[in-house]
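User: Hey, my collaborator sent me this sequence without any context and asked if I could get a structure. I don't really work with proteins. Can you help?
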Amino acid sequence: MEIQTERLLLKKYGVHDKTRFLALFTDEKVMKRVDEGVLSKIAAEKLFNRILNDDFKRIRKIWAVATKADESFTGHVFIGQRPSSENDWEIGFILAENPWGNGFATEIARALIGFGLDSMNLKEIYATVDDDHVRSINVLKKAGMKFIRYEFDKQGKYSVYGLRKTG
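Assistant: No problem. I've predicted the 3D structure and written it out in C-alpha cell form, which is a compact way to encode the shape of the chain:
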C-alpha cells in the first residue's frame, strides 16, 4: 500500500532504492539521533535486504519516501510495535539531509498518524525523540502529538509523544 501526501509518496522499497538507502543509513549527520546511530555499510545492506524480504515481526509497515516531483529518494519511514510494549505502536522517520527544512517531516508525520489511526484502527500512536532534538519535537507537536512521558534505554533518557484517536 502506498501513501500519498501533497508532495511525497511513501512506497514499497525496490532494489533501485538500495544505493540511496545505504547512503542514508551510513550518513553520520543523518543518523546522529537515530536509535544506536550510523550503520556500517554491511549492517545497512543487511537491513535493506531484510526490508526487501519483509523480514520484520514487530514492524507493520515500512516505506521508502520519494518526492512526487521527481520521484527522488528522500527518506525512510515506518509504523511498528514499540519495543517496550507490543500493544503500543509508533511512527518513525529518517530523512536525508538535503530536504531538511522543507516541511517534509511534518507532512510525513501527519500521514503516518492518519494511516495508523484510520487504516490500522489504532486507538493511540506514539513517537520517540531525544530530549534535545528540538526540530523533531517541533515536528511531532505540529503533527498534533503531545508529550506523554520520559523513558530510558541504553543511550539514556528520551521523550515519548503520543496522539489518541478521538471519537
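In plain terms: The mean pLDDT is 89. You can pass these C-alpha cells on to your collaborator as they are.
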